[in-house]
Amino acid sequence: MGIRDDQKLATREKVLEAARDLFNETGYEETTIRAIAERAGVSVGSVFTTFASKAEVLSHVMDRRLGDLYAEFDRVVPYLRGSTADRLCSIFAIHYEFETRRVKLFLAHIAASYSPSNDPGVTPYGRNERLTLMLREVLEDGVRRGDVRPDLDPQLAVDVLKASYAWNYRLAATCGAQAAALSAAMDNQIAFIAEGWRPR
Description:
10 helices
């Protein structure tokens, strides 16, 4: 890489770090590209040279965070024990513990996902392939172990689980609920959902 490439990479890193902090401090809507540029110590033009939009900046911030999260999961998942419901509760508890470290950032991610102006290069909430795959694997393993009925539609179950997971963040947004409260709510929802997949 040349000096110009090094400078572009350095600018990108500064922008992503500044954006992550601002989204977490003030939320997605309130954060402007100008504010990101000022926090990063770069020009507004430099931000737009690197990213097409604020939504794309947020998407890259979240992709980076997911990399850190799934590095944790790579270490933990092989050691999950218990029923299918127990394993799912553990997975979501880890998610809540991780995301509540920067809860406003995650709320910004969810909120931006419902914007009708999302750019084609943006990965909105819900398209997390690693989470989808992990949940499917747990459910399929439950079928093999006999505690999930074999005719379960795994994608429908994953969709319902992810919807419940996201819905619980309203507790963080409205009353400052922490990871333990979010996990407790999710545990109850998983117990309820699991009644539908138990073998008949």
